[in-house]
Amino acid sequence: MLGKAWLMLSQHIEIIKQFANLIMVTKFKHQIRQATEKDHVNIAKVSTICWQQAYKGIFSDAFLQGIDWQPRVGFREKFYAENKQVTGFVAEVDEQIVGFCDTGPALAVEDRPDIANNYGEIYALYVLQDFHRQGIGAALFQAACEYLIKQGFARCIIWSLEANAAGIKFYEIVGCTQQRWYKTKTVENKPSREVAFTIDLL
Fold first, then answer.
1. Residues of 121-145 as b/e, b for ≥16 C-beta within 10 angstroms?
2. pTM
């Protein structure tokens, strides 16, 4: 059953998607569907391109251009095999994947055991740059949140690189609240800080 908080939020997201369609001269008709095992390869390829686009200027060009999509396939297969409550959604345009998200129970965070016990999480959400501002990201976000509600989660958490201004802006637009919760991931053998965003689902 959808809670009042999510009903209000979903209306907000619908407005975002409609507005995106109005302001774009070129419109791409997209569809959102649940991902399958057959999608791992194409998602890994899209994920690699999205990293190269989204994190340009944050990480070095040499590092970004050196990312290999093939190890990402194995990571996805292993992650999904070990976490049965995890699922993914893809956005397609002309039957080609242009964006995706992965979602499920929140992963454990050092010093914050309450997060793993009480939150669902969107682990990743990416859309190819050519398809930005079409409402596709908002549609993927909506699909993930509705899945988490069906799994019984009342809250959702998303982590974004603190240096990723575009990502932070997106999560603010779709109604997330930035928290003073941080964790660090290692990229290029250097620490990169991530900040948490949360949203009430019920």
1. bbbbbbbbeebbebbbbbbbbbbbb
2. 0.88
